[in-house]
Amino acid sequence: MRTALGVSTRQLATRLGVTHSAIVQAEQSEAAGSISLAQLRRQADALDCELHYVLIPRTPLAEQVDARAERKARERVAAVSHTMALEAQRAGSEFEQQQIAAVKDELLRGRRSRLWD
To answer: What is the pTM of this model?
Structure first.
């Protein structure tokens, strides 16, 4: 943003009341991904900009929650199926799918935090 506005590192340093080397170091930290939000906020203010710090999901949240519930349900049903198979009582594939769907629905109705244990 600084370069797009045509503001030099010395000019920004003057606006912030810091040394030129502090700005250079801050820009290096930004490039390395280690700059603090406080530093970014001060620079944004000095450049008459707003700082927006956001997390943007890669996939829709509903899809993430649904996929996690599906995974947890499959894990639970697989554990029971394994035990039943050891006892020669394994249920059919269709029954397992019904059980997975039922466990998934139960997980989605409960506290979402349980999905991430």
So the answer is: 0.62
